[in-house]
Amino acid sequence: MKRSTNFLTTEMREIRDAGREWIHRVLEGPSDTICKVEGKEVIMLCSNNYLGLSNHPKMKEAAIEAIRTHGVGSGSVRAISGNMDLHEQWEKRLAKFKEQEAAFITSAGFAANQGVIQQLAPTTNDVVLSDRLNHGSIIDGVRTTKAMRAVYEHCDMTSLEDELTKLTKENPRRILVITDGVFSMDGDHAPLGDIYKICESYNNAIIYVDDAHGDGVLGRDYSGKGLVDHYGLQGKVHIEMGTFSKAFGTMGGSIVGSQELITWCRNKTRSYLLSASHPPATAAASIKALDLIEHEEPNLVKKLWDNINYFKDQIINMGYNHEITSASTTAIIPIIFGDPLKAKEASNLLYSEYSIFALPIVFPMVPRGLDRIRVQANAALTKEQLNEGLRAFEEVGKRLKVF
Ligand SMILES: Cc1ncc(COP(=O)(O)O)c(C=O)c1O
Hints:
Blueprint: H1 6-17, E1 34-37, E2 40-44, H2 57-70, H3 85-98, E3 102-106, H4 109-120, E4 126-131, H5 136-143, E5 148-152, H6 157-168, E6 174-180, H7 192-200, E7 205-210, H8 227-230, E8 239-243, E9 253-257, H9 259-268, H10 270-273, H11 280-296, H12 300-318, H13 323-327, E10 332-336, H14 340-354, E11 356-357, E12 360-361, E13 372-376, H15 383-399
Parallel strand pairs: 2-11, 4-5, 4-6, 6-7, 7-8
Antiparallel strand pairs: 1-2, 3-9, 8-9, 10-13, 12-13
Helix pairs in contact: 2-11, 3-11, 4-5, 6-7, 12-15, 14-15
The chain binds pyridoxal-5'-phosphate.
């Protein structure tokens, strides 16, 4: 019995020896700008909670009210008996926010990518064409299809066109072009306008954009409606995927698009059909998130952008002036140390000596030499908190001779 599980010990030893074990820090309380982490008060600079909504009093009130009226669980999958009025309202509210015909909610963004990509390109006569730096949940979705796979170079439109030309010769039934809206390691965004223009001339090309980090961050006039809105491509990009687990402060994957697409998703997506619906509190708080962004606190996204611009400018001016940092166009601010040990040491110093919580991201999650700390800005951070973070980065940068 024991011998059959010996690989657990061996594989964990290998992970530890390679310095790749995930040690989970424990948050003793809400995710907020100041968090209590294992007894220590720290400034949070590595959360996806970009708009500070996960502990917002009105979000909590909405969740508590839903618990009073609907209980704590949904009892089933949507298609059987777990389809509450709150789930229906959540989807309608999201479709309205996104200015699309309809929306569809899955348990998480991962489940949306896994379940929908699998069905969009299921046969060996289909092709998935992916940006080289797409998120792991897209890659895992693609792994569950029988489709042919191809990759174009990161945000490189010549490479996209070359691949499309090559693939067309195979006479595929469909070509699913998938891109992250915002790339989660570098914080740059996809040139969706150009992708649309190129794909327009292929009548079997379908565009799928994962806007997990663009939702609540990007959009014209600080709308937070995401990358599709940034380029005004509603009704043109076929499939817009997102998640409530980042700027919207709760949890749940989403697909928005035409009514035809959403009805199809509801009937085909196994990660939706075979998985229970969200607790009512999540649905109610998610609806409130969209109300807050659009009506009740319309300055939230602008506040986030003020903080992004201030922090990023100061970081670059103090000497972290790497081209990857400058190329970020979102709330993800990669601060490059260029060496895995330096990035890890910097993160440890920031935490232990300056009470700043910002985690390192090193090879193999990013290319060699681009080891970094990935800062994520937040609308709720005060000027004083931003300055404290900046002072800490400056001192650590000098101590580790980054500049
Ligand atoms: C680009 C991207 N897509 C999808 C996901 C998955 O979203 P969720 O946390 O809702 O499963 C993430 C989360 O890390 C992400 O960064």
